[in-house]
Amino acid sequence: MFIQTKCAIHDGQYDFSKEHIIRSAEGSISRLGVEYLDLLLLHRPDTLMEPQEVAEAFYELERSGKVRYFGVSNHSPMQIELLKTAVEQPLVVNQLQFSVTEAGMVTSGLNVNMKNSESQMHDGGVLEYSRVKKMTIQTWSPFQYGFFGGTFVDSPKFPELNEKLSEIGEKYGLSKTAVAAAWILRHPANMQLIAGTMNPEHLDDICKAADVTLTRSEWYEIYRAAGHTLP
């Protein structure tokens, strides 16, 4: 079992202070009844962050054996680089929203040198940065559209996408949800999918995606069916 959690948000604010990071990690350890955390993430950027404070917190947590690895969530490349001016431990993970409908990390790269809406880069090239730095992307809301707008699976808002997911699912013996998961796992960035479910049957269904590798054509067919265009 790999135990991972996040810290830094409380009472309507983000807090990367040394005291809060350590207190949050120790609180998680206590509530979980374990001796250490495998991975601790800083949840979303704190604009009042002092890199040296974060470094001191990480050093103390690592030295005491309470945290083995560290990472971030929803951070841009330059925000990560700022942390790395003081933090000595590798930042091994970045949690980012990504699904076939919320594919900004991909669409901006596919529309370089274009002036359409999908050419707009909102994350500073975090997908390419992560691959260069060998930083694992963990995808949250992999079956959602918008910012918690709902699931696109079986949604009447995405008829073409659901038709394509169903068509490819019949070929591989997968549900539409599993095909959407396979679409994420097919990317060479080797992303880790955060299923976001406590339902064992749903989780078992999603895990079947790991046994299938979509073809390049299938990947792009799903991408276009979600409403994305190629230049």
Brief overview, please?
The chain is α/β, with parallel strands linked by helices and 231 residues long. 40% of the residues lie in helices and 17% in strands.
Descriptive key words:
single chain; 231 residues; alpha/beta; Alpha-Beta Plaits; TIM Barrel; 2 domains; two-stranded antiparallel ribbon; 10 strands; 40% helix; globular
Structure description:
- The protein contains 9 helices and 10 strands.
- The protein has 231 residues and is of the alpha/beta class.
- The chain folds into 2 domains: 1-88, Alpha-Beta Plaits (2-Layer Sandwich), CATH 3.30.70; 98-231, TIM Barrel (Alpha-Beta Barrel).
- The strands form 3 sheets. The protein has a 6-stranded parallel sheet, covered by helices on one side. Strands 2-3 form a two-stranded antiparallel ribbon.
- A hairpin with a 4-residue loop joins strand 8 and strand 9.
- The N and C termini lie far apart (44 Å).
- The mean pLDDT is 97.
The largest sheet is: 6 strands, parallel
Alpha-carbon distance between the two ends = 44 Å
Radius of gyration: 19 Å
Mean pLDDT level: 97
SS-derived structural category: alpha/beta
Give the uncertain stretches in residue-range form: none
Summarize the amount of helix as a percent range.
40-55%
Order of helices and strands: EEEHEHEHEHHEEEHHEHH
What count of helical segments does DSSP give?
9
CATH topology grouping of the largest domain: TIM Barrel
In spatial order, strands of the major sheet run 1-4-5-6-7-10
Quickly give the CATH architecture of the largest domain: Alpha-Beta Barrel
How many β strands by DSSP? 10
